[in-house]
Design goal:
Blueprint (H helix, E strand, L loop, with lengths): L10 E6 L2 E4 L14 H13 L7 E10 L11 E7 L3 E10 L2 E12 L38 H4 L1 E7 L7 E7 L2 E3 L6 H9 L1 H6 L7 E2 L4 E6 L8 E9 L4 E10 L2 E11 L1 E2 L4
Length: 272
């Protein structure tokens, strides 16, 4: 793939046989030759959703390991059922490049039954934060970036506040493009793709000096989001030895729908 932007792309990936071919919209922020963790998380969630279930189920947990840089080249997602039962199903999905696993996810599905609602008095919800009419969405840049990552062109982003380390940041995000051409984005693929932003939204580091890619993403999903726009309220903590953690509450228009956690790898830019 070239790093020249083609602003006419309508989807992050196209399907050729079983392979997902990335457009420049899949390009991540840390290296133009690597795919964004958000794009990769979205296609892993898509692959899990395509596995059949023995009864009505939905995804309750999605744990993603971004094990190696995912190259900007066609890759074929693979999946297998690890545990199949009447109440839960566990699915492993992964992407390989040249025989090496570059990203994987463990997915827990739980059976659904509308007759088991215990009542409103047992239901905890947090109301959605107000959506800003206009955000403080300055460009997310490397040293006021040498290039604009393609993934950022696939996203609408409205930052509401900027905090100090350990405090919360909040932003509303929306996936503007189809993840896969000619396929509507499902609520779960949208949540996985946008949930990866929690690490970046939480980050209060000086991005002209520091990199902090997340090596994983774990989403615990209370319910499927009902709106295109999602609010991520996130905070991060950085240790003195180059590790970090981010934690986020994720809202749709109706309230809380998921929580996300990520492990951060903190380093200096090579020329910092």
């Amino acid at each position: 793939m070239t790093t020249e932007s083609n602003h006419q792309e309508q989807a992050v990936y196209t399907l050729e046989g079983d392979a997902l071919v990335p457009s420049d919209l899949a390009q991540g922020p840390w290296n133009p030759e690597h795919q964004s963790g958000g794009a990769v998380s979205g296609i892993l969630a898509r692959s899990a959703e395509r596995v059949e279930t023995p009864c009505p189920m939905r995804i309750a947990r999605l744990s993603i390991d971004l094990m190696r840089p995912v190259p900007m080249k066609p890759l074929i997602p693979q999946a297998r059922v690890v545990r199949a039962g009447r109440r839960i199903q566990v699915v492993d999905v992964w992407l390989e490049d040249a025989g090496q696993t570059v990203a994987r996810a463990s997915v827990l599905r739980v059976r659904t039954d509308d007759s088991l609602t215990p009542g409103a008095e047992y239901t905890f919800n947090l109301p959605s934060p107000p959506r800003p009419e206009a955000g403080k969405d300055g460009p997310v840049t490397r040293r006021k970036l040498a290039y604009m990552p393609g993934w950022m062109r696939a996203i609408d982003f409205r930052r509401e506040q900027l905090s100090q380390p350990g405090q919360k940041n909040r932003a509303w995000v929306r996936l503007r493009k189809d993840l896969v051409a000619d396929e509507p984005n499902s609520p779960i693929t949208r949540l996985a793709a946008l949930g990866d932003f929690s690490a970046g939204i939480a980050n209060a580091l000086d991005l002209s000096r520091w990199t902090s890619p997340n090596a994983d993403l774990s989403l615990h999903i209370l319910r499927e989001p009902q709106s295109e726009w999602l609010a991520l309220e996130a905070s991060a903590s950085i240790s003195p030895d180059g590790l970090g953690q981010s934690s986020a509450i994720i809202f749709d228009d109706q309230g809380i729908c998921a929580r996300g956690h990520a492990s951060l790898i903190v380093d200096r830019w090579p020329d910092a």
